[in-house]
Amino acid sequence: MAKLLMSLASLVLFSTIAIGADAEDQLKAVIVVINEPGTINVEISIGTDDGVKVDDLFDVYRNDEQLGRLKIVQVSADRAVAKITKLNDSKILRRGDNVLSNSR
What range defines the domain where residue 50 resides? Predict the structure, then answer.
């Protein structure tokens, strides 16, 4: 039940964020790798096959709260490595946090 609620919350979040922007142009992913707390790089679940390019910017969300911003520094077909360029209120990013492109 909790997983279902989290999935629904994520769907609502992405639907809400996309209002006022062309949803088809926004890329959606999740953080899949964080080596350790305090790291400056994370890995996300999409890559060049999805249209990700070096220097693309992504915002990070958990539930309905924006946590920070990422900048893509390395990309492969199905994954991308991003540098954490901003953290809001000393937030800590976690595996599974949602990312949404903001540069499209």
Answer: 2-101
Could you tell me the pTM of the whole model? 0.73
- Nearest CA to 101 out of 6, 17, 11, 10 is that of 17
Give per-residue pLDDT as tens, 9-59.
Answer: 444 444 434 333 455 678 999 999 986 766 789 999 999 999 999 999 999
The domain total for the chain is 1
CATH number at residue 28: 2.40.10.340
